[in-house]
Amino acid sequence: TENLEIENVIIGSGYGGAVAALRLAESGHEVTILEMGLNWEKSGEKFSPMISPGKSAAWLRTKTIAPFFNIFNTKKYTGTLDRWDFSNIKIWMGRGVGGGSLVNGGMAVLPKKDYFGEVFPELNTEEFYKKYFPLAEKELEVNSADENFLENCSFYKFNKVGEQEAHKAGFKTVRVPNVYDFKYMEDEYENKVPRSALAGEVIYGNNYGKKSLDKTYLKKAQETGKVHIHDLHKVESIAKGSDNTYILEVIQTNTLGETVAKKKIVCKKLFLCAGTMGTLELLLKSSNDNKLTLNSEVGQNWGNNGNFMTGRNFVKTFSGGTGVNHSTIPVGGIDNWDDKEHPFFSEIAPLPMGMDVATSLYLMINPVPQKGSVFFNPVSRKIDLKWSADNVALARKNAEYFIKKMNKANGGTRAHLLFNNGFGADICYHPLGGATLGKATDMKGRLRGSENLYIIDGSLIPGTIGVNPFLTITALAEYCIEHIISEDFS
Ligand code: FAD
What we know:
Low-confidence stretches: none
Number of domains: 1
Structural class: alpha+beta
Largest sheet: 7 strands, mixed
Shape: globular
Bound molecules: flavin-adenine dinucleotide
CATH superfamily: FAD/NAD(P)-binding domain
Strand content: 15-25%
CATH architecture: 3-Layer(bba) Sandwich
Number of strands: 21
CATH topology: FAD/NAD(P)-binding domain
Number of helices: 11
Radius of gyration: 22 Å
Mean pLDDT: 96
CATH class: Alpha Beta
């Protein structure tokens, strides 16, 4: 085992980790990021499209793990997409330098101001909407598609049909900004550049077009010369050292997931940015194994952001189908949030199968009135969830209402071809909470009762934010790290 002493360590290179790294480096501090996934850019490996999954498709698995149509075998490799299965829920996550930004749909959605205020009553809402959200949008390079392009691009027929049908059923739709470069996509459409979104790439990574974190925050961070990213480095546990230091047990692996080196890293300041599930597993496991003391809020207030996937088959009565080709980047949302009885936001999702399957796919986001919790299971040596049908009752009621109304106005059936009973109640892309701001941590992300230990990722958000979460995670990270730098670094 190699022993190392490092001043500032960040675990994880997703949104929280990338923001923390850039701002710490800009204020003159050396930072080391430990990331269990691969540095794809450095490796020279290519990402693969959905209909021909290659190395990037799955984290150390021999079969694909997308939400459906997993008919493909893959070679065991440190791929970009991981999934953790629990009873009643499956959770997908990104792996690699850039975290979830490598695999996600790039939707950069501003939460409703009122709802943000409800979720975070102690934060200054005005300041967030004037300062931290615009800053996050700028750094993430958020942009919107040209309406003319959307109107005429055959790859967006699914969205056009989706919006028309929603309007016919009496729902309101909104345009959704994204970090995918829409100017690049226009060039793709005209065959001026290699295709990515228009070639079925997204959930196993985009080779072009998408401004994932390695192209924005992490790139800027590395340009300072003060940020050192170690990929294929997995933190196994945390223990408290003397003088308020932390001792990390780390394994370095190869791309088959085999351990090639073991390291013991002692650090002064530790930033846990391993994503909601990663951060909770590290904390709860270290508490069980190493007596790391945690406050009783750790593991509480966990939620799936009300994720509920559903769809409709035989969408052709009025529209003539959803189109042969789908861009992988969503641009439309159905906004029913202000309906007191059935509040939801739904993404009109693509289904890039390379043929017209006449199916509409929706990722609904609902409020989460009843939160779940996370605990360490000493038998499986993994974290487990308290999460049941009760936790998704409102989402299910909303989905039934939504699909019924859509089918009544437009024809079609519940998507039995995609999901059991037409409902994917167990599909979660947005795990949130468990180390919530103001409860498990103070109002700046300092874990209560643990000096020099900071939480900056999705686990700060108490289980719900009403829209796709990465813009909020980024804004919260900007706010936390700004205060941490000015108050804790002299
Ligand atoms: P992450 O981005 O998850 O980053 C955590 C990082 O830590 C990972 O790289 C992980 O490998 C690393 N890590 C974990 N444990 C360890 C360890 N022990 N040691 C070392 N490294 C570790 N959100 C949106 O807003 N818009 C979308 O369009 C959208 N689409 C999505 C589509 C899919 C398929 C998925 C899975 C998610 C999507 N999301 C979307 C959600 C979004 O990607 C996440 O909310 C976001 O990435 C969470 O950010 P984070 O900083 O909390 O952690």
